[in-house]
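so i finally got all the pieces together for this one. its two components total, 642 residues if u count the protein bits. some of the lines might not be protein, just check the labels. i wanna see the whole assembly predicted at once instead of chain by chain like last time, that was a mess tbh
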Amino acid sequence: MMKALGSSRLSRRRFLTASASLGIGTIAAPYVARADDPTLRITGWGGKWGEIMKAEIGPAFESEFKCKLQIDSAFPYLPKLQASSRSAPIYDVLHTNSNEQWAAAEMGLVEPKIDPKLVPNLADVYPYAVSDKIVGVSIFTSAIGLGLRTDKGYGSITSWKELWDAKYNGVRGGYVIPVNSLGQAFLMMCGTLFGKGQTDLDAAYTALEKLKPIKIVDFTGAMEKMLLSGEVGLCVIHDSGIYRYDGQNQPTDFVSPSEGVLSLEQVLTITPGSKMKELANAYVNYMLRPEVQKRLAETVWYSPANKKVKLDAKYDAKLLTTPEKVSKLIQVDWKWYNERKDEIDQRVNRIFRA
Amino acid sequence: MQTTASHSPSLAAARQAAPARTAGSVRHYGRYLYLAVNIAILIFLLAPIAIVVVFALNPTPFIQFPPVGVSLRWFEKFFASRDFMHALGFSLEVAVLTTIAATILGASAALALARGNLPGARLIVATMLSPLMLPAILTGLALFQTYVLLDVGRPTWGLVAGHTLVTLPYVVRTTLAVLHNFDTRLEEAAQNLGASPLRTFFEVTLPLIKPGVLAGAIFAFIVSFDQFPVSLFLVSPGNETLPVTLFNYLKFDLDGTIGAASVVSIVLAFVVVIGLDRTVGLRSYVKL
């Protein structure tokens, strides 16, 4: 008995060997796991989008395509992609808003177009989703319009220009333009409303100057809360930021101005250096499937890009689900905008700093 | 003359008493001023925490003053969220590993720098403190690029290494401060009495520098647990720390859950500090 115990005693050599094996095993484990499963590395949003992707949409994709989906929901995506090697990018599929996609495309970090032969569902999307204003494909869009408190007696609103009405002084809401896509799109809209078009920056700057006093925030989530609390009465916002409180009895509503609504696209692109091209194309195609589009659209109140999607009546009534409704969308020329972003940032910072 | 003579002593007394009264009232007002400044500093320090607590306990999904009631719904949401719980656990794991690594490396480095007669010791100290000078976001980006170049991905040990880098200066600094006042004759006495260098270290040196090492360890834990800029680039999908998870959350949902998470973080930091005080004694450091 004593001998048996003695033989099982841990010698120094055995301890060192075991420790080294454990260490090597720990370090090598991720690589071994990586070698076993093809892994598709993508980016994605947090909030409700992230929840349903983790709970349903992602696992269903993994099961069907026998792969692992690694979703990075920690911003910022573009600097991470920039910092990684072009031949071995950190992501296979980049999911961001359109302005960032254009910046990525300009740097050669993403492929400018998706091949329709490899993504058959591309044939069923609305034209805006693959227009010349889009890099890759827009899988969803939100409509940027006006958010209104319905309990303040402001009356009905039909035009963007009503945001400049003096009665909204002190309760008007906008964004920190350099860091917010909605703010940037709105600046272009100001050029259309008061000048010769989206690119009339002088008219846009003058219009922004006249918007003061205005409460500005970084994130749309913050704007939603300011509207809910009554801190702002009329603000620039996307429809999903209002509709997501549907059924909660909130005194807020979304207004689609007569001049049209700006589109806030959810865009997918594939990185040129991806080693998982086939799987990446399969993922884009999967995200455009009518059933996947319907599930996501009805969870996060985004308008689906696939024409064949049939939403339940409640969602169908509010989202952009017909060619007529989609024709109201105004797309921003992000390529043009990004080329002038530094200059625009400096100017709008001067305007709102005062 | 008589009048003058009769008034002279009282005038002299009055003249003597006046400065005394003035000095007394200056001391009196000085005390009030001192109290007022301290209260102002306390309010400045505690007001953000108070606002966070009010936000966390307010039932409305937005910040509202005055609060309309008291509710634990955001705490329930926080503790029921698998993402938040995982992030909290992961943050604690990273903070503990970082504290261990930074404490061992930092204390050893401080000892070597204070005792080793190293050439260019001052330059080495300055270099070791340099992570504090560099914006942490750049440290994170630089490490991220290094890991990408090495093709190691974004492993947990990489995140711990990043946190160790930014917490190391705290341990080095606090340990060096204690070593500065250290009486080396105590070690000599121990060795003269037959103690080996190892025994001298564990029985004389370590107990004496413990307060500095411990203070550095506490800094390391808190800085790591709250670390955001370095983590932003180094967290991997599915393994996000609490500050990164909170940042991503508030981009989409700015509700009281953020406040509840902040309250939990504050309470945890308190628990760690008080726990260390009770187990290893912070008070001895305060005496220094």
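DSSP finds twelve helices and no strands in chain B.
Residues 1 and 179 of chain B are 72 Å apart (CA to CA).
anyway lmk what u think
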